[in-house]
Structures are given as structure tokens and as C-alpha cells.
Amino acid sequence: MISTKNIISDLKDIPREWIFEYYLNLKEKLTGQDLKILSAFNAKDKIPSMCIYTDTLSGVYKFKDFSSGIQGDGIALVTALFNMPNRGHATNKIIFDYQEYLKYNTCSEIREFKVHDKFKVVDYEMRHWNTLDQQYWMKYKIGSNLLEHYNVTPLKYFVMEKKDIDDTMLSFKFERPYMYGYFRNDGTLYKIYMPKTTDKKFIKVQNYAQGTDQLSFEKDYLIITSSLKDLMVFQKLKIANAECIAPDSENTMIPESTVNKLSKRYKSIIVLFDNDEPGIKAAERYKLKYNFNYAVLPMEKDLSDSVAKHGIDKVRDMLLPLLKQAL
């Protein structure tokens, strides 16, 4: 008699968390918690930039790799890992590999999935500007007027909390130099920036396309930069008839509804991201989805580093023809 014990014919018979554990060789079982690991798509990744998380709508595991911009569910993971032509091929591989796995392993145990709360910023205190702050921002030619215009404020500390799975409350207070709160015009904190922290420079508090509150809609052109810092540096170039916004990160697409509104207000929208591989790939995604042309500045990694090293005039002379070419 032929055994049907290990015959799997449908993806729904395979635990979705198994896909991530198996193909990413995870050391811990997934039971609802979020993980951050080194990129599976970028061998040069030194700081973990690939997030594995439970999707709040579907309740299944997904991933987002900030190093490469690749994201999606388990099928998308396998499609990208093995460079497969479509999701159907990836699904067949998953089914085959799971059947092979069951030949040498017992069926995956039934796990109790628990909703893991995420850390949230619950408190903060502003402080006065000091000499260290001045030295940091002036390196990029960003002065107090620009920082005030874009609501950047130094922080003395901030507190993050979350409820653990046993209902105990976990709380951490962060107090260190070079911490800045990014605020909207109405005083809402949307991001914390810690440029001297190597593993976590940004703490996202709310979704917001940076610089939107400051748009005048009186310019002909809109530039999408990679960060608020690059956005502020762009203002120092004094390129007439253009203003800027910045997404939460290069790998966060500005929503289509927002893009449709902006496209009606400007003659053209140009993307100006970092000139490394992730930045160029992110710009190409904007080109593919929204047909926005992009410029690549062949100087330092990003606009702000270019100004810091080469000065405003040299960067402006290099960038202006590139922007005109992208129009």
C-alpha cells in the first residue's frame, strides 16, 4: 500500500511560518513575534535590515528587506531567493520541499500563536540646542532656520513601552546625545532620528510623507528625496522652482492616492535617492509604478554627504544638469 502520509498537494496544508524558518534557516520558532535579521539578498549587509513580521490584516508572516527593497509573503520570499519566474513555480517548490522535510522530520507541532505587541513611543522631553547639535547639523550646512521650518527639535529622552505576551509591561527610557524629534506643523511627533546610533537610527512613530506640511504648491517641480536631512540640504542649493518631500524611507512607496494629488499640482516629479544599489533600485520602483524619472548624483552616497564633503556650489553645479535631463 502506498503511504499518503507525506503527500501535500496544497499550500494551505503547509504552515506559513515554516516557509520562513526553513528557507531563512531561522534559529527560533515563529509564534507571532517579529524578527530582524541580516538581509538574505545582500551579502554586504552588516546591520540586520530584514524584518519578518505578522501582517495585522491577514495574521500570516511577511517580510520586508530594507537593504534590497524586496518584500512580501512566504511565496514572494521563495520567488526572490531562487530567482523564479512566478509565484506558481515558487509554490510548487515549497510543496516539494515540505514533503521532503516531512520524510525526515515529524509534522510541525501545533503552536499557540499570540499577538505580540510592538514597542511604541509613549513619552518624550524636548531640550535646548547645544554645541554638539550645531556641529552635527552645520556639517551639512543646515542651520537653525531650516531646522525650525521643518520642526526638528532635540530630545532629552524618549520612552518606549509594550505589553509582553504575559501582560507585563516593558518600558525603556532612552537618553543620549544626538537625539532629534521630527514633528508635524500641528506638533505631532512622527519620527525620532538618532544619527550616532549604528543599529537603529530612526524610530518611526507615525506614517507621514516628510515635508508635506511645508509644501507651497507654488513651484513647477517636486523632488522626492531619500530623507528629511537630504530634503533640507536641497533647500540650501537654492534651485529655483522646485520643492521637496521625502517618504518614510527609500523603500516606503508614497501612496498612490497622495501621488495622484501631487501630480496634479506639479509639472513634473523627479526622484533623487541615494546613489548606491538600494537607492537606485528604489528610484526604479517609482519609475515603474508612477513613471517618475530619477536623477543619480555621482558624488557621495547621498545629497547631504555630498554637500558635507564638496560644498554647496559644487553639488549644485553637478546636480542641476541632471535634474534638467530628468525633466
Q: Which tags fit this structure?
A:
327 residues, alpha+beta, DNA Primase, Chain A, Dna Topoisomerase Vi A Subunit, Chain: A, domain 2, 4-stranded antiparallel β-sheet
Task: Characterise this structure.
The protein has helices spanning 16-23, 74-81, 87-104, 131-138, 144-149, 228-236, 256-263, 277-290, 303-310, 312-326, and strands spanning 35-37, 50-54, 61-65, 71-72, 120-126, 152-163, 169-174, 180-183, 189-193, 202-204, 221-225, 242-245, 268-272, 293-294. It is an alpha+beta fold. The protein has 3 domains: 11-104, DNA Primase, Chain A; 117-208, no CATH class; 209-327, Dna Topoisomerase Vi A Subunit, Chain: A, domain 2 (3-Layer(aba) Sandwich), CATH 3.40.1360.10. The strands form 3 sheets. Strands 5, 6, 7, 8, 9 and 10 form a 6-stranded antiparallel β-sheet that branches. α8 links the parallel β13 (268-272) and β14.
In short:
By secondary structure, the protein is an alpha+beta fold. The protein has helices spanning 16-23, 74-81, 87-104, 131-138, 144-149, 228-236, 256-263, 277-290, 303-310, 312-326; strands at 35-37, 50-54, 61-65, 71-72, 120-126, 152-163, 169-174, 180-183, 189-193, 202-204, 221-225, 242-245, 268-272, 293-294.
CATH architecture of the largest domain: 3-Layer(aba) Sandwich
The shape is: globular
Task: Estimate what percentage of residues fall within beta strands.
Answer: 15-25%
Q: Give the rounded overall mean pLDDT.
A: 89
Rg of Cα set: 23 Å
Low-confidence stretches: none
Helix amount, in percent?
25-40%
Profile the largest sheet: 6 strands, antiparallel
Find the count of extended strands (DSSP E, 2+ residues).
14
CATH top level label of the largest domain: Alpha Beta
Quote the distance from N terminus to C terminus.
70 Å
Order of helices and strands: HEEEEHHEHHEEEEEEHEHEHEHH
